[in-house]
Design brief:
heterotrimer; A alpha+beta; B alpha+beta; C alpha+beta; B: alpha+beta; OB fold (Dihydrolipoamide Acetyltransferase, E2P); Ribosomal Protein S8, Chain: A, domain 1; four-stranded mixed beta sheet; 5 helices; globular; C: alpha+beta; Ribosomal Protein S5, domain 2; five-stranded mixed beta sheet; 27% helix; elongated
C-alpha cells in the first residue's frame, strides 16, 4: 500500500499536506492556534473548525457527515488543553475523488481514509501538539477476502467496507481510534480483519516516519 | 542534521520515573496533568541535556513551525493594531490573538508622559507574561537595567519580513551563526530579530521616502537608492537561506546582491 | 488572607455545571443519572395504528415511535423520477451493490424555533441515508414502476376510467397505448423528533427503527398516464433531456392513482413476502443499538491509581451528562441472522478506551437485542 505526499506546499497557512492514495487526491491546510470567533471560544481548550470541500460541486450533508467523523477523531488526538481559548482551523479540499457514474453507488470511505491520513501530515507540518501518531486504512471485504484501498469498482462488488484508524504508540498500533463498517459483516470476519489491519497500519506508519525524517532534515537544511 | 528523530507516540529517551534527576521539559513535550506522564507532541529532533552532576536534565523537541505561541522572555516584533484603555494591542502574527503592551511598560513612562505609538507602527518588545489562559503581555524595558535596552519603536526606514520560527531562533540564539556574518561582508546593517518569525532589517539609511531624502543634506539620492536596494537584497538573502545548505551560501549571497 | 471554603452544589446544579463529575459520582456508586442499568435500553413503543397514512393522500408509509418522552414521527412520501432505460434491464444480482437504493430523509428536531437545519440534523439524515443504502435493504427493482395504467375518457359516464395492462388486459388491448420512458419511485422520509432527551447516537437508533418500520408498512400506489391534467399531478424531473424538468414533450402526464385498493406493498430485500406482518420488519435490516464507554474510579478503591479504574459500557445514552461527558461511542446495527450491518466506533476519550473485549461485549448485546425485537 503506497501513497504520495508533499508538505508545506501552501505559503499562507501554518501547515499543509497533499496526499494521493489510490484514486483519491486531497490537500489539507492547518491554521492555528489562532484567535477564535467569540462563539468558538472554549475557556480551557482549543476548538476545532473543520471544513471539507468535495472535488466537484458544493459541500452538502455528505461532507457534513465526513466533517463530523473527522472532528470526533481529531479532537481526541490533538492535545487541545495545550491551547486554551484558541482555534485550530483545518480545511480538507479533495482534488480528485472517485465519482460514481450511472449504475454505481456512492461511497465515502476512501475519502474519509485519505482525509485522515492527510490530516496527520498537515498537523505534523503545522507543529500542532498530537498525543500520538495515527494511521488509517480503507478496506473492502468480499467473501472474507480483504482488499486494501479498494477502488470504486471493488467497493461496488464488496460485501462490506470499512475505514479503520489506529493510534500508533512506540511504532505499534495501540488502539482503534475509529472504525466505520458498513455492509454485511460476520463477527469472525470482522475480528480477523481488525487483526490484519494492525500490521498494515504499522507498515503505513513506517512510511510516515520515513517521510517525516526527510521533512525534518529538509527543515534544517541550513544547519551546519 | 544530527540527533535522532522523534514523532508523537514515541517514548522519550529518558527515564521519567527516576526521581534522582529533575526533568525540565521544553517545547514539543507535554505532561498529561491526569496521569503525570511525559510525551512528545511534535515531530522533530529530540534534545536531552544533563548537567554535570546529573541532577537535572532538560528535554525538548527541536522542530520547525510557522505559528508562534508566546513564551515569557521571548523577544518579539509586533505591529500596533489598536489601543485598549491604557495599553496598545499588538499583533505578533496574522490571525493570532492580539497581545497587550501597556503604555506604562516603557522606560520613564508615567501617567502624564505616555509613549506616542501610532497604529501600524512596529515595536521590538519582550514578552513579560505568557499564560495561555489569560492575555499575553509585552514590555519595552530591559528588566535588568530598567532602561530601553534596544526595545521600543522600530523606525520606518527598516524592512520587516517573515522567516520560519526555527530559522529565527538560529539567527537570534546561535552566536556562531554564519548567515549574518556573511551578510556583514556585503553591507552595513541594523537588525532586530523577533522570535515570532519577524525580522526587521535596515542597511545604511534604509528605505526612505523621496521627500525625506531631498531634505537631507550631504547625501545624494543615488546613495539612498543603494541603501534601499541593499536592504531588500539582505531580506531576500535571509529568506533564501532557509532553503539551502551552507555550501551554496556564497552563491545565494551573490545572487541576492547582483543588482546592488 | 482570603479563606478558601469548600463549595457544595445540589446534584441537579452539579449535573449542569460539571456533567463529567456528576456522571462519575453516579457511576461510582453503580447508578446512571437516568436510573437505568448500565446495559439497559430504554423501552421503545411502536404505534400500531396507521392513521397518518390513512388520513393523508400523500403519505404512503408512516410510523410513530416513542421512547420515554422522545417521540419520533416518520412519514414517507413519494417522488417519481425518470430513469435511464439502459440500466433498467439489469437484474439486482448483476448490479451488485448498485442494485439497491435508499431513502432521502429530512430529520427535524423540534427545539421551539425554526430555521436552517442544524449540523446535528444534517448528520443524522446523512447517516441514515448512507446506512440504509449500504445495508442493501431496498432493491431498486422494488421501486421501479411497471404496468403503467392509462386513463380513458368514457363519454357515456362522462368520467375517466383507468385501465392497467395486468388488471384489465381485455380493455387495455383496445387502447392505443404508447409509452417508452421508464420511471421509478423515490422515497422521501420526513422525520420529526419531539421533546428530545436522548443523545445524538440514541436518536439515530430511533430514526433508523422508525424508518425501517415505516418502510415495512409502505404501500406503493399504481401509476397511470393521461393526456389531460386531471388527477394527482406529479412533476417529473427528466435526467436525459435538457428541458429542466418539464415533462411537456409527449403532453402526457404521470399520475398517481390514489385508489387505495390498488396499492401494493414495497418488497424489501431478503423477504419472500412483503413485510406487512409487524413481527418481522427487522429481520434483515437489523436493529440499531448505541453504546458509550466511560472509565470510572471505583469509590471503594480510591487512591489506587490504575487498579481502581474500570471501563463501563453504557447502553442507549440519554441526558445531558451522558451526552457531553462520554466521547468514546459505539453504534451497532445487527440483524436477526447475527449479521452486523454497521459499526461506527469512535474512541473520542483518551482515558476511556473501547477495547476489543468491550466491542465484543457490545456486539453480543446488540445481537441479543436484534433477536428480541
Amino acid at each position: 500500500m503506497t501513497f504520495q505526499v508533499r508538505t508545506s506546499l501552501l505559503e499562507n497557512v501554518d501547515g499543509s499536506a497533499e496526499l494521493q492514495i489510490g484514486n483519491t487526491k486531497v490537500i489539507t491546510s492547518v491554521t492555528g492556534p489562532i484567535e477564535p470567533k467569540a462563539r468558538q471560544d472554549l475557556p480551557n481548550q482549543a476548538s476545532l473548525e473543520i471544513v471539507i470541500r468535495p472535488a466537484v460541486d458544493l459541500a452538502s450533508t455528505r461532507e457534513k457527515l465526513l466533517e463530523d467523523k473527522l472532528r470526533s477523531l481529531l479532537q481526541s488526538i490533538i492535545v487541545r488543553y495545550k491551547y486554551p481559548r484558541q482555534l485550530i482551523q483545518i480545511v480538507v479540499q479533495f482534488l480528485v475523488s472517485d465519482t460514481s457514474s450511472e449504475g454505481e453507488i456512492d461511497y465515502t470511505s476512501n475519502e474519509l481514509n485519505a482525509a485522515i491520513n492527510c490530516c496527520y501530515f498537515a498537523l505534523i507540518d503545522a507543529g500542532v501538539a498530537l498525543s500520538a501518531s495515527f494511521a488509517s486504512l480503507s478496506i473492502s471485504l468480499n467473501d472474507g477476502k480483504a482488499t486494501y484501498n479498494p477502488s470504486l469498482v471493488d467497493l461496488n462488488k464488496s460485501d462490506s467496507h470499512h475505514v479503520i484508524c489506529f493510534n500508533i504508540v512506540k511504532g505499534k498500533a495501540d488502539k482503534i481510534l475509529l472504525l466505520e463498517s458498513q455492509g454485511d459483516i460476520e463477527e469472525e470476519e470482522l475480528f480477523t480483519m481488525i487483526s490484519n489491519a494492525v500490521s498494515e497500519c504499522e507498515v503505513i506508519h513506517q512510511q510516515q516516519r520515513k517521510f517525516i525524517k526527510e521533512k525534518v532534515d529538509n527543515d534544517y537544511v541550513w544547519k551546519q | 542534521m544530527s540527533g535522532s528523530l522523534i514523532i508523537p507516540g514515541d517514548s522519550l529517551p529518558i527515564d521519567s520515573r527516576d526521581s534522582e534527576i529533575k526533568t525540565t521539559i521544553g517545547p514539543g513535550i507535554y505532561k498529561n496533568p491526569q496521569t503525570q506522564s511525559i510525551i512528545p507532541t511534535n515531530a522533530g529532533v529530540i534534545n536531552v541535556q544533563q548537567n554535570k552532576a546529573k541532577t537535572t536534565q532538560l528535554v525538548y523537541v527541536e522542530s520547525n513551525s510557522k505559528r508562534y505561541i508566546p513564551q515569557t522572555n521571548d523577544f518579539v516584533i509586533g505591529i500596533v493594531t489598536g489601543v485598549v484603555g491604557e495599553a496598545y494591542k499588538v499583533l505578533l502574527q496574522d490571525f493570532s490573538t492580539a497581545v497587550l503592551l501597556s503604555m506604562m511598560a516603557f522606560p520613564n513612562a508615567t501617567k502624564k508622559n505616555r509613549p506616542n505609538l501610532k497604529i501600524g507602527q512596529a515595536v521590538y518588545a519582550r514578552v513579560s507574561q505568557a499564560i495561555p489562559e489569560i492575555e499575553t503581555e509585552l514590555e519595552c524595558i530591559d528588566p535588568t537595567t530598567g532602561k530601553e535596552g534596544g526595545f521600543g519603536l522600530l523606525d520606518e526606514s527598516g524592512y520587516i519580513f517573515t522567516v520560519n520560527l526555527n530559522f529565527a531562533r538560529e539567527l537570534l540564539f546561535n552566536p556562531n551563526s554564519i548567515f549574518l556574518e556573511k551578510l556583514a561582508s556585503r553591507c552595513k546593517f541594523e537588525i532586530a530579530i523577533g522570535i515570532n518569525g519577524k525580522v526587521w532589517i535596515k542597511c545604511g539609511e534604509g528605505i526612505k521616502l523621496e521627500k525625506e531624502t531631498s531634505e537631507e543634506e550631504g547625501k545624494t539620492p543615488r546613495e539612498n537608492t543603494r541603501d534601499l536596494k541593499s536592504t531588500l537584497a539582505a531580506a531576500r538573502y535571509l529568506t533564501k537561506c532557509q532553503k539551502i545548505s551552507v555550501e551554496s551560501l556564497d552563491q545565494v549571497l551573490d545572487e541576492a546582491f547582483k543588482n546592488v | 488572607m482570603a479563606e478558601l471554603k469548600q463549595v457544595s452544589f445540589p446534584p441537579e446544579i452539579l449535573a449542569r455545571i460539571a456533567p463529567d463529575i456528576s456522571l462519575q459520582r453516579h457511576l461510582s456508586i453503580g447508578l446512571r443519572p437516568n436510573l437505568r442499568n448500565f446495559t439497559e435500553f430504554k423501552p421503545i413503543d411502536i404505534a400500531s395504528n396507521n392513521e397518518l397514512t390513512e388520513n393523508n393522500n400523500n403519505v404512503f408509509g408512516s410510523s410513530v415511535i416513542k421512547s420515554g418522552s422522545t417521540t419520533v414521527i416518520n412519514t414517507i412520501t413519494l417522488g417519481v423520477v425518470e430513469v435511464n432505460s439502459s440500466t433498467k434491464s439489469a437484474t439486482t444480482e448483476q448490479l451488485g451493490n448498485a442494485g439497491y437504493t435508499t431513502v432521502y430523509p429530512v430529520i427535524e428536531i423540534a427545539r421551539g424555533r425554526s430555521g436552517a437545519p442544524t449540523d446535528e440534523e444534517m448528520i443524522l439524515s446523512q447517516t441514515l441515508h448512507e446506512t440504509l443504502l449500504h445495508s442493501r435493504l431496498i432493491p431498486k427493482a422494488s421501486l421501479s414502476i411497471n404496468n403503467y395504467g392509462a386513463a380513458v375518457y368514457d363519454a357515456t359516464l362522462s368520467n375517466y376510467s383507468i385501465y392497467y395492462p395486468d388488471l384489465n388486459p381485455q380493455e387495455f388491448e383496445l387502447i392505443n397505448f404508447n409509452h417508452s420512458k421508464s420511471y421509478t419511485f423515490v422515497l422521501l422520509s420526513h422525520i420529526k423528533i419531539f421533546s428530545r432527551q436522548k443523545s445524538t447516537s440514541a436518536l439515530f437508533d430511533l430514526c433508523h427503527l422508525s424508518t425501517v418500520h415505516a418502510l415495512s408498512r409502505l404501500q406503493l400506489p399504481r401509476v397511470y398516464i393521461s393526456d389531460t391534467t386531471s388527477g394527482t399531478k406529479v412533476s417529473v424531473k427528466s435526467r436525459s433531456s435538457n428541458t429542466r424538468g418539464l415533462v411537456g414533450l409527449s403532453r402526457s402526464n404521470i399520475n398517481i392513482d390514489t385508489n387505495k385498493e390498488l396499492f401494493y406493498p414495497l418488497v424489501l430485500n431478503n423477504s419472500e413476502d412483503a413485510m406487512v406482518d409487524s413481527s418481522g420488519p427487522f429481520d434483515h435490516s437489523g436493529v440499531s443499538s448505541n453504546f458509550g464507554v466511560v472509565t470510572v474510579a471505583d469509590a471503594d478503591k480510591e487512591g489506587n491509581d490504575e487498579e481502581g479504574k474500570r471501563s463501563i459500557l453504557l447502553a442507549d445514552l440519554e441526558g445531558e451528562a451522558e451526552e457531553s461527558a462520554i466521547l468514546s461511542r459505539l453504534s451497532i446495527i445487527s440483524n436477526k441472522s447475527n449479521t452486523i450491518k454497521k459499526i461506527s466506533l469512535i474512541n473520542g476519550d483518551g482515558n476511556s478506551e473501547i477495547s476489543l473485549d468491550i466491542l465484543k461485549q457490545a456486539l453480543e448485546i446488540a445481537k441479543l437485542r436484534a433477536q428480541q425485537m
